[in-house]
Amino acid sequence: MSDPTAVKAALRAQQIETPSWAYGNSGTRFKVFAQPGVPRDPFEKLQDASQVHAFTGAAPSVALHIPWDKVDDYAALAAYAAERGVRIGAINSNVFQDDDYKLGSVTNPDPKVRRKATDHLLECVDIMDATGSKDLKLWFSDGTNYPGQDDIAARQDRLAEALREVYDRLGDDQRMLLEYKLFEPAFYTTDVPDWGTAYAHCLELGPKAQVVVDTGHHAPGTNIEFIVAFLLRAGKLGGFDFNSRFYADDDLMVGSADPFQLFRIMFEVHKNGGLKPETGVAFMLDQCHNIEAKIPGQIRSVMNVQEATAKALLVDQEALAAAQRSGDVLAANAVLMDAYNTDVRPLLAEVRAEAGIDPDPMAAYARSGWAEKIAAERVGGQQAGWGA
Amino acid sequence: MSDPTAVKAALRAQQIETPSWAYGNSGTRFKVFAQPGVPRDPFEKLQDASQVHAFTGAAPSVALHIPWDKVDDYAALAAYAAERGVRIGAINSNVFQDDDYKLGSVTNPDPKVRRKATDHLLECVDIMDATGSKDLKLWFSDGTNYPGQDDIAARQDRLAEALREVYDRLGDDQRMLLEYKLFEPAFYTTDVPDWGTAYAHCLELGPKAQVVVDTGHHAPGTNIEFIVAFLLRAGKLGGFDFNSRFYADDDLMVGSADPFQLFRIMFEVHKNGGLKPETGVAFMLDQCHNIEAKIPGQIRSVMNVQEATAKALLVDQEALAAAQRSGDVLAANAVLMDAYNTDVRPLLAEVRAEAGIDPDPMAAYARSGWAEKIAAERVGGQQAGWGA
Amino acid sequence: MSDPTAVKAALRAQQIETPSWAYGNSGTRFKVFAQPGVPRDPFEKLQDASQVHAFTGAAPSVALHIPWDKVDDYAALAAYAAERGVRIGAINSNVFQDDDYKLGSVTNPDPKVRRKATDHLLECVDIMDATGSKDLKLWFSDGTNYPGQDDIAARQDRLAEALREVYDRLGDDQRMLLEYKLFEPAFYTTDVPDWGTAYAHCLELGPKAQVVVDTGHHAPGTNIEFIVAFLLRAGKLGGFDFNSRFYADDDLMVGSADPFQLFRIMFEVHKNGGLKPETGVAFMLDQCHNIEAKIPGQIRSVMNVQEATAKALLVDQEALAAAQRSGDVLAANAVLMDAYNTDVRPLLAEVRAEAGIDPDPMAAYARSGWAEKIAAERVGGQQAGWGA
Amino acid sequence: MSDPTAVKAALRAQQIETPSWAYGNSGTRFKVFAQPGVPRDPFEKLQDASQVHAFTGAAPSVALHIPWDKVDDYAALAAYAAERGVRIGAINSNVFQDDDYKLGSVTNPDPKVRRKATDHLLECVDIMDATGSKDLKLWFSDGTNYPGQDDIAARQDRLAEALREVYDRLGDDQRMLLEYKLFEPAFYTTDVPDWGTAYAHCLELGPKAQVVVDTGHHAPGTNIEFIVAFLLRAGKLGGFDFNSRFYADDDLMVGSADPFQLFRIMFEVHKNGGLKPETGVAFMLDQCHNIEAKIPGQIRSVMNVQEATAKALLVDQEALAAAQRSGDVLAANAVLMDAYNTDVRPLLAEVRAEAGIDPDPMAAYARSGWAEKIAAERVGGQQAGWGA
């Protein structure tokens, strides 16, 4: 796709979902550092998300996390979003912050806890109905800390049973997106530790179940773009939770730790059709801005995904295929690197300008006064945060 | 299974396959250190393997590697084995040591190379027919070293096509065991990098295709016993390539780097029925004795697997299940650790004595004079080794 | 040391320090699960620690964490400990939970924050004077999350300056123990990421500065016993923070993830003289009992260290040295494994019985009624926890 | 250094050393794939190295490996190099490919083997005298494969003794560069596993001993640029062995796996004065072109280092320092990323053109006919390779 018009069109079409929790306080187990102006309720989170969309033109939807974003009237929440130019994205379930879940949620040895957890997942589908959300995103913190603590295979049975019940509740145009994670908060076993486990369950469930790749949830040395290519080939890539990591699940801004990896991922997405809207691949951010400002942190992240996508679109696929066929390792690598080494910032500035947006979203946001405004106005009440 | 008779019976029944290549020279990319008395042909390898079986009573089969163990008359080779009390085990294909395979074998961009590689796999099935082997073990070194070098998804298509052709050639009582490996010798992508990829292909192929878990082929932090439990639950665990590692695919003696991990693996095998012969789980060694003596290295490894199995059999499963149900994390862990902390060497000495074998296989082999005999007799000719 | 009397004497002499924070609530960034009966102040923590000592006979000192264990009268706290048969151990500084420390403490770009942090360290030395503690244990969460965030070398200069000031304040019989950690809570750089950095600073400071090895603070694949042997050879091993990990800094019970590694560590300690009191190596626990009961979790951990130590003491060092000299790899490894495979629980039961303690500390504690007592009595008030 | 003249001058001044062994065959433990036209002796290696210099203008020196590059007359070899516009760089010792070294070289339990190994190191200093080389580069494959195999601390004593003897033999303007490596070919302990060990020995030896950072020799998650900054601050960074890796010591082309990491490393080099010739930091390649063409592989690698260096030079250090002082995490990161995201290929093309070199070294080499010439002429004889 060296055709500049097509590249620009693809960039204009790309939508990146931001998560409501990125606007609230977050931290590590050692400390949560509060920031001025942080939202105090889901409505204020939507205000902030709409700022990210206003300055990037690329973030029209907002993921919710239940119960963090619980409200009495979800239709009103959806309407509030629409007024601000955004919409409700994926509904994220949370079965890890109640005391009951100490030894697991849907895989807990205690059937009462499993029932409670599954009911919460079903409630999330209700919220999808109420908000128009199409995606249920499931991440389970379930697992064990010590060898022998529980029965690994039995927990798979319990997991399968809960997933089946929720899957059967989904509407025709709703999907279940199953996330995997190597470790944390469980330290010995995790019940969905890798893409293989998520894939196997999704395969068994049916076409509405797909895998979510969180870029921070892998063992060291894992080739993430291989997984992306494999899942797209199998029709089972539901989407991404984007963030970046140097060590474990650091939840840093996407593209900040290894921009080349992000480019390789986006290249496999593009190469295997994943940028086409009909493939349904969702591009979602899932980050914690522990020490940096949150709204600009999201804006920068959206831009990082766009830059990686632009480079992926610039790869000369014909030249690449020819070099690959000829077995010329250096030439094939050089075709890819040519695109990566290109400075795509002018191109994206153009795309923005043509869409009537400031070509420099970071500077435009800084000038807008929004940060000062919320710091001044959002005083009193309880800042939102994980668990708030 | 705290019933001592049943524990002993299970230990007596366990069979561990040794690989012909463990008896030849091996090394790292830096150096192969030759050892005195190393076999010069497949027949001498079978002699050595039969020593391991003679002193352990637990290693009645020998895996072959083609073309390293190519002979004119495979029936004669099988008969030679039988005379020495052993039999031919899995046939291991080798599509990584011809110059043609520089850019891959069954996934090579060049269809001629793919044809050659697939033909080799089919030839291995012929050898299975000739030797009575039931298992075709496939490990592919295929992959790429540099981003862009080849098309990840296209390589999956080529892989699937070759596997299908070979699968369809299998006889009714023959299996295809597909191995995965994170990296090496390919350094960027590997075409079967993880259990998920192997599982997905095996599922598509059918019931005769199963996954092999090589204990040294995982990313750091991977929970291997989870994979074992998952695959057994899904009926897709074909067997093990046992060895151990501190860093990468070190191919050290099984149980020497992390004996607790080996115990946990054997516990999941036992817990999920994998010790029952009808499950068909093959316990194979796949190690490189680069600096230690090879035959005693194999004997020690067989003993290490037996000790881990004995401890797994000693776990009080009723007490474990009760502790798990009650949510008592420390108690459940303690039940497992009680078995692990038991010194099972006296029990295994008894099992051996009852089977008419010396209770101390290492000492008995050392006294036997075999090492001195082969060092004296096997002079001249070319020592066997990787590629020899 | 196959002399049983000497082995027993060494086991009787070993002291393992428990940390006050192990008795309070802890958790992951996702959730802290509260437990019944958790202490509400430093005095109650000392009560619990004294239970661990009462049932093991091996945990006579308790590490404090300032400000978590801040009291008005430290002499009174020390006296309270003495009444219960324990004493105050290392003083642990905390320069990571104030809002000021968001971008670092002693390495912060802002000199006012550095001054505040260094003053806190000096205050900890005052508390050492008041409590009779001999060891100042320093762990810094300092680091950066993003490339470019701060100047790596400048932060080293600031670190060196603060350490020097504190070092010069130490009394003659006081030590500074400097801990290193690969990552978390900082995700890009850590200012003391590895033993090399800690060692270099300690060397520059002088003989009262030594390195602390936290067994959970290393990159995957790091050989911890090598570091232990190296530091003992250099006279720079101050002590251990014991815990165990499967992935990152999981802070599980020591010996629960890799008991063989713990044995190898204790073997190097013993082999290089580190069990002799005059070496001054401190054996401290640093764990988080997130889901298991806290007091029995500490008892089990003390026992795990004792078992690893017993096995290390049982290694036949003469036989080992002879095998090493002869270059017999398998024989040398076998000498070590013989000790590891021994069930040392009967030996430790004997040591306890001879010391007038119940041979089964876990059962004895369970029978004691302490857990029920504190659950009933410690109601109202605020449970202690990280930051409490 | 936003001054374009200064940036260009720095780029013109940078020299990157290529290793003689990069021109010979190499491979993995599984297979060495031979390439057409590979040198058959050290003289032909110098021919190839001079091509890399001719087309890049930045690779004027060639590292030798003894005994791979043993010749009768080293002065003649040096003269041959000079005629072709290059010179002899570092002398690399090899104490890992003789049968004697199976259990170690300078750390071997056998004093005779240690003597032989140390003598080889001394011989390398003789070769330095004969060739005018200033640097002795030491990498030891020494280590153990199994716990108990040898005494960790005793091996450190032996290492220190050998290093001392060699250090004392160095001339006034000669250096000893000590390399560390996490693992391989030893799989349990390595005698110089990390920068801390190398640093401690160099510190003890004196000012002529410095540490070499091989970018592929670290545990997963290690922050290499931190080590670089630390060593430069301590005056102990001798130089680099550049290559890149996805998993272990893959020895791929530098900058091909993580170009952002290479940029961060070069930024710390530049920031801490390491680009100034008087600092003496040596920039050496150490790679294995197992499947790609060797001479273009070296050319591409030299260019990759140059591009990373150019980006490092373009960082606006004043703006960076201001952002760091103000604690603006996003702004500081953005200053760094601005430089990284710049396409520096036009700038380097200019630098080359101004130096009278073709702006596109890869294309110029391809056109030169050298590859075809050596493929045609270098027939017969034995191709050089590891051990050849």
Automatic annotation (TrEMBL), chains A, B, C, D:
GO terms for molecular function: L-rhamnose isomerase activity; metal ion binding. Signal peptide: none annotated. InterPro entries: L-rhamnose_isomerase, Rhamnose_iso-rel, Xyl_isomerase-like_sf, Xyl_isomerase-like_TIM-brl. Keywords: Isomerase, Manganese, Metal-binding. Residues 72-247 form the Xylose isomerase-like TIM barrel domain. GO terms for biological process: L-lyxose metabolic process; rhamnose catabolic process. Its EC number is 5.3.1.-, 5.3.1.14. It comes from the Bacteria. This is L-rhamnose isomerase/sugar isomerase. It comes from Allostreptomyces psammosilenae. The lineage of its organism: Bacteria, Bacillati, Actinomycetota, Actinomycetes, Kitasatosporales.
